[in-house]
Amino acid sequence: MMPTMLSADLEPMARELHEKACCGSKDTWPELIANGGIENASADIRERFISQANKGMREAQNLIVDQIKKSSELSASEEILFRGIADSIAWQFLGHQLCHARRLFKEQAPPNLKHSNFDSVVLAAANIIESHSDSMPLLSDLTSFVQVGDILANIPGQGMIIYEVKEGKENERLIDFMNFYGESKCDRALQIFCEQSSPKSIKQLERMVRQTGRMVHFTDVVSKGVSKDPDTGQLIQIPEQEVQIDTWDKELNQLLDNPEGKGWGIQVIDDCLFIGCYFDKTMIPAGHIIFNGWFDSCGGTENCPRARLFDSMKIPLALPLFNRQIPHEKMFDLLFGRLQVCMGVNIESLIAQLKRAGLQVRFGTNRETTQLEQKGGKVYRHKGKSIFISNGKVEMTVADGIFVRMLFHGQKPVSLIKEMLENTPVSEQGHR
Question: N or C end of the chain: smaller count of CB under 10 Å?
């Protein structure tokens, strides 16, 4: 874990982007608090909240687009900042729900922001705003994880809508046929179409069909809570009631407050999640080394997950710093290297705590692990072995995603795993 930070010259822009993208609705916050949240607020307050929030997000996105257009090449810091802001907008759309965000992520590398289709997507977004003045059409390519559709739009009264932007007469022909076939289901027409089309056009049609299936899948998951994933065939079911998972936000903020005025602070969550904060100028550059020494002395092994809080700005499906419940000034200290926060999960201690909580833990056989990996599962191995956890009703395998939740969504390990098991239908047992 080598320390990283954004270039210092980007701080004024970072503050402006954050203010617009995440605080555009702040004039309505006192009213929302007085009414006990947006769910209990009047229709007028909700409308103003959404209108102001979307306006700020549009302004932030316009700033990013302008910077991309006038730069011959973006620096690494610029790309991290711009994607982090775009991700923060997407997470606000999704209500910070990872179960919905996962439906949009296809594990593809983010595209080059200077690619040829960018101008067309920007124009399409402008057309959406022209038709729906209070909408916020987020350009998918700006984000690190929205990989279904070209635009994820939040339109008041309609919710989230995914748009696919296609150019050229051939694409228009393919779209027209796809719409026709979707209604008619005429296999003879499909046969004739394929006979009269080039292999390139047929492949493009296949891509369009897959993308349409993904768009429908996401919409069904968000609106109905159940849908079959067109890529894996897995039936996805989201619990009707929001699952409450304990977080370690309070403990993190206590560390960040640094009440004793020391150059460092440490905390352990659930006896297995280790956190180290480093404030002193001489300690910040070596914070990861100091943390690793402490973590290893407490039983951390080479394959135990460990990261910096800053890494959330670079990992798809991690909640960016802009969305975390931490003071704004501390957030900018983390972004620009005036503060270092390191984290690690001690797997042996985690297993012990899960057993203490009444769960069963076993190591998988080589055959079980290989079968899961052959199905595309990113199985986590501890000392070469996969880990299975059960509550007596369902069993799941520990995968990398569970550590993203612990480290970058601030979820306490034991509460997280217990709730995941409790809310997993028997038919969906598998890796998480």
Answer: N
Please report where in the chains the tokens 């880990």 appear, as a residue: 387
Taking a C-beta distance cutoff of 8 angstroms, is the pair 130, 124 a contact?
no
| Residues 363/386, Cβ–Cβ less than 8 Å | yes
Q: Which residue, 77, 17, 107, 103, is CA-closest to 315?
A: 107
Ramachandran category for residue 60: left, alpha or beta (phi over 0 → left; psi -120 to 50 → alpha): alpha
CB atoms inside a 10 Å sphere around CB 166 = 15
Bridge partners of 273?
269, 345
Give, as one character, the DSSP assignment of residue 40.
G
Please name which of 356, 355, 373 lies closest in space to residue 364, comparing C-alpha atoms.
373
Q: What number of CA atoms fall less than 13 Å from residue 316's CA on the CB side?
A: 18
Separation CA 50–CA 159 (nearest Å):
11
The C-alpha atoms of residue 215 and residue 217 are separated, in whole angstroms, by 5
The CA distance from 26 to 36, in Å, is: 15
Identify the three-state secondary structure at position 193: helix
Please state, as a whole number, how many other Cβ atoms lie within 10 Å of the Cβ of residue 410.
22
Alpha-carbon torsion (164, 167, 169, 174), positive or negative: negative
Domain ranges across the chain: 8-163, 169-237, 249-309+322-346, 349-431
- In this structure, what token pair is assigned to residue 45? 């307050």
CA 110 to CA 86: how far, in whole Å?
A: 13
What is the residue type of 417? I
Mind listing the pLDDT tens digit for each residue in 276-303? 999 998 899 888 899 999 999 999 998 9
For the record, the structure tokens of 23 come out as: 């605080």
CA–centroid distance for 423 within its chain: 20
Q: Is the pLDDT of residue 208 over 80?
A: no
